[in-house]
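Trying the structure run again after the queue cleared.
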Amino acid sequence: MLTIHADSRGHAVLVKGEWIEAVGPLEELAAAHPHARVRSWPGILTPGFVNLHGTELLEETYHPDPREADALGTEPLTGDALTALALDDARWGASARRGVQRMFAHGTVAAACAPLRHRAVRDAVHRTGLELLPRRPHSTGVPSLDPLASAPPTTPPALAPGSPARFAVFEVRDEAELTERGAGTCVATVVAGRLVFRRR
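Done. Tokens:
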């Protein structure tokens, strides 16, 4: 199936399976592919972000289940609070899945990680489609689900025909407003051609 994703500026990408088939103005892509499904999003469409702190967010953080909110709250747990949980493999895997989903909700399409040590985390992350990249020897900034809050943003290569269908849409007017308001403005994230996050 062909799908066109377009933003408020009329910028659009044509997706087939896991790949980008074409990039251009919405009117041109829609005219050339009249049977394609069109998804129109508010804001700007970008390649998405690489979170530089994948190791910390996936293997050194517990992301509570909403059902645990009364006991653990809703914020990610680290340090002594994490140690006190004495997590088993099932909870590590579930935490990693929730962590990736929260990263998707901030327009993250890839994460820089050291080799993941926990098999449960490794397997859970692999199933999500999040791309894992080798991390720099010394990542700067404080780990955050919002890539714009912790370090200068890193983005994958520009969207182009033949490149992986991996991008995000943020409900802002332009890149300057995105920098000001942060990646919590994400309304949609696509990874491997799949819509993995949509703000409701």
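DSSP finds eight helices and eleven strands in the chain. Worth checking whether this holds up in the mutant runs.
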